[in-house]
Design goal:
By secondary structure, the chain is an alpha+beta fold. It has four helices and eight strands, in the order ααββββββββαα. It has one domain: Jelly Rolls, CATH 2.60.120.
Length: about 160
């Protein structure tokens, strides 16, 4: 697929929806297409993040590592973004992202996006403001999942 085919979906997504078309073109000039197969790990919790991914098709699970195994915090689909850590200073992923289906993405290299934001503060301000909203949403979702998990009935050990 060509990046032009992704344009309308990316513009409608929460991260880039409503952004000035000239700014969107500038951001997408950095992008490349990356696809993932069902079950493939897009990035692993704790690893250095390199790309911010805009989901075009497919579903992705965000998971936390627990002693009992992976715990799904959120499921994302077309129009959502994953990998925001790639454009933060520490660049360490806070979740594992796993493709639940075949997934097509538009990937924005984190270092290039940061450089663009440094050189074009207007784009940087809009993008960082949207990222704060995305991060707050992920925090709320994680908190809700942890509360649900805490309130779930625990199996009773019978002797």
């Amino acid at each position: 697929m060509l990046l032009k085919e992704f344009h309308d979906l990316v513009r409608a997504g929460r991260l880039l929806g409503g952004i000035d078309p000239a700014h969107l073109r500038t951001l997408l000039s950095l992008a490349r297409e990356i696809d993932f197969k069902e079950g493939e790990v897009i990035f692993q919790e704790g690893e250095k993040s390199s790309n911010l991914y805009l989901l075009v098709t497919g579903d992705v699970a965000l998971e936390l590592s627990t002693a009992a195994g992976p715990y799904r915090v959120q499921t994302l689909g077309p129009g959502d973004a994953v990998g925001w850590s790639a454009i933060m200073m520490d660049q360490r992923a806070h979740f594992t992202a796993r493709a639940l289906t075949d997934v097509s993405t538009v990937a924005l290299p984190g270092d290039d996006v940061l450089s663009l934001c440094d050189h074009n503060p207007e784009i940087g301000y809009v993008l960082m403001r949207r990222l704060v909203e995305l991060i707050a949403d992920r925090l709320d979702s994680t908190r809700l999942q942890l509360v649900r998990r805490t309130l779930e009935p625990q199996p009773v050990e019978r002797r």
